[in-house]
Specification:
The protein is of the alpha+beta class and 126 residues long. The chain has four helices and six strands; from the N terminus they run H-E-E-E-E-H-E-E-H-H. Strand 3 and strand 4 form a beta hairpin. GO terms for molecular function: DNA binding.
């Protein structure tokens, strides 16, 4: 099944933003794209080959952002018990999915939760 263009564009923007953060690297555990900082995942990007619906999974410890993310159409606490730690899976192919800018804000928050202080300081200095 073809991925809707607007969803793919959002996904590409989010991926590019995530990998542009200080110290971020892309890896492919389990055959899915993840962005890591300091060997820890800060965003699960999944796949863009159409085998699964496009989406991103981020860690949101801020109550307001977490509630906002969960209020998005189709969003849910992440599987494998990650939801209990604040991880939220946000689908991008559903009507009313968040804009790329908001997704990037959430990716940045997730990054700040996981990245070492020196890298968040580098980000603040930009």
């Amino acid at each position: 099944m073809a991925v809707p263009r607007n969803a793919l564009k959002k996904w590409e923007k989010v991926r590019e933003f995530a990998l542009g953060l200080p110290g971020a690297v892309e890896e492919f555990p389990w055959g899915e794209s993840v962005a890591k900082v300091n060997k820890k995942v800060f965003v699960f990007l999944g796949t863009d080959d159409g085998s699964y619906p496009l989406g991103v999974t981020v860690k949101l410890t801020d109550q307001t952002a977490h509630a906002h993310a969960l209020a998005c159409p189709g969003a849910e606490p992440a599987g494998y018990g990650l939801g209990r730690s604040g991880w939220v899976s946000v689908p991008l192919e559903v009507r009313g999915a968040p804009a790329a800018e908001l997704l990037c804000d959430w990716v940045e928050e997730s990054y700040r939760t996981i990245a070492p202080k020196r890298l968040t300081a580098e980000l603040d200095g930009r």
